[in-house]
Amino acid sequence: MHINSTILSGQGILNDLHYLLEEREHVLFITDQNIVNLPLVSDFIKKVQDTVAVVTLVDDVPPEPSHHDVTNLLNKMKISNADLVIGVGGGSVLDVAKLVSVLCVKNSNVTLELLLDGIKPTRRCTSILIPTTAGTGSEATPNAILAIPEKCTKQGIISPVMLPDYVCLVPELTISMPNHIASSTGIDALCHLIECFTANISNAVGDNYALIGIEKLFNSLERSVKDKTDLEAKLNMLWASYYGGAAIAHAGTHLVHAMSYPLGGKYHIPHGVANAILLVPCMTFIRDVAVDKFSQIYDLLPDADLTLTKEEKSHALVNYFRDLVKRLALPSKLQELNISPDDLPYLVNAALDVKRLMNNVPKKVSKHDVLAIYQSLL
Ligand SMILES: [Fe+2]
Question: Does the pLDDT at position 2 exceed 90?
Fold first, then answer.
C-alpha cells in the first residue's frame, strides 16, 4: 500500500493552511455537531469561508453512520463539482469525508451503491483530513466503515484512492475529548498497532510503523488522559493513532477487531470500549505464538525489566494490558454492558463471519476458542 499524504503537525498549524485554499472554487467542509462549535474549528471555518467563493458546510455527520445516513448527507449537499474536501472530526467524520471525496469529484459516475457493490473509485477531489480523536487512524487508512442496519453489521469500503492529500495533526483539537473517549479511542489505537504487528500478513514496513506507534502510545496515553493540557502527549497520541492506521494499511487487524465488530454492530457498544474488553483475553489467546513479538513490544514500556526472558516478557505484557485497562477505568467484562449468555451464539457466529480478520490471526481459531473468549468475559 502506498501512502503519500503530506503530514502537517503541531500546535497552531490551522493558522498556516491558507496556501491549501488558494485557487479553490468550491470546498466541502465536513464535521459533526460536537466539533463545529469548538472555537478553533469555527475560526477555521470562517477563514475558509473568507478565502473560498463557495463553501458547503455539512456539520451533522452522525456517530457510526449507516449507508442511509451518507445517502441523506449526499442528497442534502447536492454537489457534484467540489474541488476540495476538508474533514474535521473523529473516525466517522473522516470516513464520510473520504467517501465524499470520491463521490463529489467533478464528472464522477461512481455512486455509494456502486462502492458498496465493490466497484473501485479511480479519482477524488483534493482532500484534507484533520482528526479530533486519537484512535481510529482513519486519516491513514484506505477504509471507510458504514453500518448496514438491515443486516446488523458494518461494511468496509476499501480503496487507496480515498487516502487524503493532506493530514493535519493538531494537538489542541483533541483537548475537548472527554476522558472516557480519550481512553477508549487510545485503546483502539493500541489494538490497531498490536494486532497489525502480530498479524499473519505482517511485514517489515507495517512492523516499523507499529513499533514507532506503540512506543509513542506507551509514553503518552495515560499522560494525555490525565492532563488534557499536555499537548506533547496529545500530539504523540495523534501520531500513535496515525501509525496505527498506517499499520492497518499494510497488515490489518485480527482477533480483537473481528470479535469487537458484532458488539458494535448489533449491541452498539462503542468500538474502543469493546476493544478494551477484548484486548486481554485475545492477547492471552495468541501469546504462545507471539512470544518474540510480545517481548519486543514489552521492551518499549518505559519501566521494562530488560533482565526478563522473552517468555516472561510476553506474560508481563499481557499483565500490563490488564492493569492499563483498569487504570483507564474502562470496563473489562461484557456483563457490565448487559450482554448475557443468550447473546453468545449470535456473537460467536458473527465474529467467525469476519473472515478477512479471522484469517489474519496468527493462530488457528476454532468456534470453541471464540466461545471460550466471550464466555470468559461474562
Ligand atoms: Fe479499530
Answer: no
Q: Rounded to whole angstroms, how far apart are CA atoms 121 and 115?
A: 7
State pLDDT tens for residues 215-230: 999 999 999 999 999 9
Per-residue pLDDT at 1:
63
Nearest to 273 by CA among 193, 146, 147, 187: 187
Rounded to the nearest angstrom, the distance between the alpha carbon of 266 and the centre of ligand 1 is 16
Burial string for 110-132 (b: 16+ CB within 10 Å, else e) reads bebeebeeeeebeebbbbbbbbb
CA of 163 to the centre of ligand 1 (A): 17
Look up the pTM and report it.
0.95
Q: Is 58 helix (H, G, I), strand (E, B) or coil?
A: strand
Rounded to 10 degrees, what is the CA torsion of 311, 315, 316, 317? 100
On whether the 179-376 domain is CATH 1.20.1090.10, my answer is: yes
**pLDDT, tens digit, 9 for 90 and up, residues 278-292:** 999 999 999 999 999
CA of 272 to the centre of ligand 1 (A): 7
Q: How far is the CA of 192 from the centre of ligand 1 (A)?
A: 6
Contact criterion met (CB below 8 Å) for 162 and 121: yes
Domain ranges for the chain:
6-174, 179-376
Is pLDDT above 70 for 235?
yes
DSSP secondary structure, 211-268, as one string: HHHHHHHHHHHHHHHH-TT-HHHHHHHHHHHHHHHHHHHHT---HHHHHHHHHHHTT-
**CATH number, span 6-174:** 3.40.50.1970
